[in-house]
C-alpha cells in the first residue's frame, strides 16, 4: 500500500530527569530532505536522529522539532562573581552618595547587574539523554507514518479509480481504431469515384495501396500495448509496500507520451476526443502522485 508524503506525529517521554517532546511534520519533496531543530547542547544526538528517520521515511521533507525540559534543577550549577559584585557595589555607592544621598544600595540592586550570577548546566549522561529521546522520537515517527499510510490509502483509491477509467477509454480507442481504416477506405473510394464521375474505372490496386499506407501510418497498436503494460505496472505499484512515488511519476509521463502519439497519428474525431479525456485524467493522476512517497 502506498504512503502519502504528508503527515504529522507528536510524542512525549520522561525518565524522571529529562522531559522530551518531539513533533514530526512531513511534506511533499522530490527527495529526502530532513530538518532537525533541537537544543544546541544535545547536538551530539543529531546523527542518531537522522538514522532513525531514514529508517522510517524514505521520501519527502521531514521537519523534526525536539524540545527538552528538566524535571528538577539538580544538574544546574550556580556561581556568583563576588569580585564583580563588589565592584558594582562600590560604583553604586559612589553614585548614590553623589546623586541620591537618601538611597541605599541593596543586594537586589547588585544581583540585577550583568554577569554577577551565572548558571551553567552540568554535563548530562549522553546515553541517558539518548534513551529518553529515542523513545519519544520513535513514537512520534510511528504516528507520522500511520497518518501517511491512512492518507496513502485514500490516494491509492482515487488513483486506482481514475486509472480504471483511463483503461476503459483506451479500450474504446482500441475498438475504434480498425473502423477508422474501413471508414477511410469507403470515404476515399466515394471521393475518387465522384471525381472520376464514372468516366474512368477505379484502380482497385492503387486504392488498396493508399489504404494500406494510411493504415500503416495511423497504426496505434504499439502505443495501445504499451499503455496496457504501463497501466498494469501502475496497479502493481499501488499494491507495493516499497516507496514507488518516483516510479509512478515515470509511468504517468510514459503514458502521457503514448497518448500524445495516438493523438498525432489519428485524424479521427472520436479518437481525438477520447485522447483529450485521457490526458485530462492523466493530469489528475499526476497531481495525486506528487504526494506519494
Automatic annotation (TrEMBL):
Q: Which InterPro entries does this UniProt record tie to the protein? A: YicC-like_C, YicC-like_N, YicC/YloC-like
Its cofactor is: a divalent metal cation
Keyword flag Hydrolase: yes
Q: Which GO terms describe its molecular function?
A: hydrolase activity; RNA endonuclease activity
Residue span(s) of domain Endoribonuclease YicC-like N-terminal: 2-156
Q: Which keywords fit this entry according to its UniProt record?
A: Endonuclease, Hydrolase, Nuclease
The record places domain Endoribonuclease YicC-like C-terminal at 173-293
Q: Which PANTHER family match?
A: UPF0701 PROTEIN YICC
The record's similarity note reads: Belongs to the YicC/YloC family.
What's the protein called, per UniProt? TIGR00255 family protein
Amino acid at each position: 500500500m502506498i504512503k502519502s508524503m504528508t503527515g504529522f506525529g507528536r510524542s512525549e517521554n520522561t525518565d524522571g530527569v529529562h522531559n522530551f517532546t518531539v513533533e514530526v511534520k512531513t511534506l511533499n519533496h522530490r527527495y529526502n530532505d530532513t530538518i532537525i531543530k533541537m537544543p544546541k547542547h544535545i547536538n551530539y544526538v543529531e546523527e542518531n536522529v537522522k538514522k532513525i528517520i531514514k529508517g522510517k521515511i524514505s521520501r519527502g521533507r521531514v521537519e523534526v522539532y525536539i524540545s527538552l525540559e528538566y524535571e528538577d534543577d539538580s544538574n544546574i550549577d550556580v556561581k556568583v562573581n563576588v569580585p564583580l559584585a563588589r565592584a558594582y557595589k562600590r560604583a553604586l555607592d559612589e553614585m548614590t552618595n553623589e546623586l541620591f544621598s537618601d538611597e541605599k544600595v541593596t543586594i537586589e540592586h547588585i544581583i540585577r547587574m550583568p554577569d554577577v550570577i551565572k548558571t551553567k548546566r552540568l554535563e548530562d549522561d549522553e546515553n541517558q539523554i539518548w534513551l529518553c529521546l529515542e523513545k519519544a522520537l520513535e513514537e512520534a515517527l510511528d504516528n507520522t507514518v500511520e497518518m501517511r499510510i491512512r492518507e496513502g490509502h485514500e490516494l491509492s483509491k482515487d488513483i486506482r479509480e481514475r486509472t480504471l477509467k483511463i483503461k476503459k477509454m483506451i479500450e474504446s480507442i482500441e475498438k475504434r481504431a480498425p473502423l477508422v481504416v474501413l471508414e477511410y477506405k469507403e470515404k476515399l473510394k466515394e471521393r475518387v469515384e465522384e471525381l472520376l464521375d464514372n468516366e474512368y474505372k477505379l484502380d482497385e490496386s492503387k486504392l488498396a495501396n493508399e489504404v494500406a499506407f494510411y493504415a500503416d501510418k495511423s497504426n496505434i497498436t504499439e502505443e495501445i500495448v504499451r499503455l496496457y503494460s504501463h497501466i498494469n505496472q501502475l496497479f502493481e505499484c499501488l499494491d507495493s509496500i516499497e516507496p514507488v512515488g518516483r516510479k509512478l511519476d515515470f509511468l504517468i509521463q510514459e503514458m502521457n507520451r503514448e497518448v500524445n502519439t495516438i493523438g498525432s497519428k489519428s485524424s479521427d474525431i472520436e479518437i481525438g476526443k477520447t485522447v483529450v479525456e485521457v490526458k485530462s485524467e492523466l493530469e489528475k493522476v499526476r497531481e495525486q502522485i506528487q504526494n506519494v512517497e
